[in-house]
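INFO  loader      accepted 1 record
INFO  loader      residues=482
INFO  predictor   begin
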Amino acid sequence: MKLYDLIEGLAETTLENTEITDVTSDTRKKVSAGAMFVCIKGKTFDGHDAARDMIEKGCSVIVCERDLGLDCQIIVGDTRETYVRLCEAWFGHPERELNLIGVTGTNGKTTITTVLKQVLTDMGCRIGLIGTCQNEIGDTIYPTARTTPEPYDLYELLRKMADAKCDYVIMEASSQGLEQKRLAGCRFKVGVFTNLTQDHLDVHGTMENYYQAKKILFSISDNAIINIDDDYGKRYLSEISCPAKTYSCCEKADFTAEDILLSTSGVKYVFSDGKRKQNVRFNMPGLFNVSNSLAVIACCETLGFAPDASIRALAKTGGVRGRAEVVPTGRDFTVICDYAHTPDALANVLSAIKEGADGKVKCLFGCGGNRDAAKRPLMAAAAADNSDFLIITSDNPRDEDPDDIIDDLMKGLDGKDTPYIRITDRREAIHWAVKNAEKNDIIVLAGKGHEDYQILAGGVKIHFDEREVVAEALDELSQAEK
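INFO  predictor   done
INFO  writer      dumping tokens
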């Protein structure tokens, strides 16, 4: 692409209108001769410091925010947003060819987006999905490194989705993705808010900053669907400018759930939108999944689909990997794998499971390293309040000592009488849980969910799939019984 075509409307330059061979902000990327490098300042590294090195690697144009004294530089006011716009142009503005749906909030994003894809697919639509577990175009799966991809990866994916003629693209909109302007060029037909509880304060610093980051979605949405069972949702209603509709399990709203019945196998309730009432069945347990399914129906109706169609499709949906996922054991006890890694999410899933449990609920959990340390004791307190026994272990320790993380976590058990055992190694902890399981126990493996790895010091990833670890432990148990 010619330089002038690429930067049209973004910047002015007297540089020669050369052919640009690639666009990047990543100093680690191998670049082709004639590439454009965009200098972005992050928390720990400033791309401006690498500009000359990138020229030596072959870049012919440098986009920067300050004068670097380079003959090939183009100075702009905000390189982060400019990079997003350049990626849009580089891939031919695929966002303009797609109907985008964004879901934001602390908990529920993956369940809502995954189930919404299943429902819309059942109703004959071709769907693209961008989220925490994986990216999907129809039945084709693409791996993902983060909830909301970096701009180049995002627009490359959107181009594939546009070329595949997707009717809708459903996207998890993370607070970091929104704050870092990765979605600045997108326009969403519908933006959905689930809830806001303590998480990512290591990034945002305060709940107010976290709230404001999530709020950005509604400045780039045509319609909003807001959960007013959450106090932050009520606040959004008074602050956002796009048309908004509400959903609730407890209060009067545009979309409500009435006569709710909960069980360990799923939920039943009566859906009401003020014009009709219909029975709903959804095969995931807990009041929070009443809320999640209600958001799906509300979103579909906002898109123009009749509730009876989406409710029929909803009843056919299966579970979501790593979200209250039952791991087969062939035994008289149950193992459930769930991604809950915030105090609120942990309390929700454990209370939902405990409500219908015939035996003890035993929670195995830890907390991630290099992340919001303030939530560690809150996680322990939530687990203690909603479990009969705790198995305290590691999660993704990253660059922290796992035992130091557990020491922080243990402070939340002060004044609690829930019995526990501390086993630092997560594999060993899972083996202990299986070996010591009693009849009708429900063992909840919390925190990893869909993840099939652990992150250790230096960012090293090792393969760690809890389903496989459970299978190993069951095999050892069978061998011991022979």
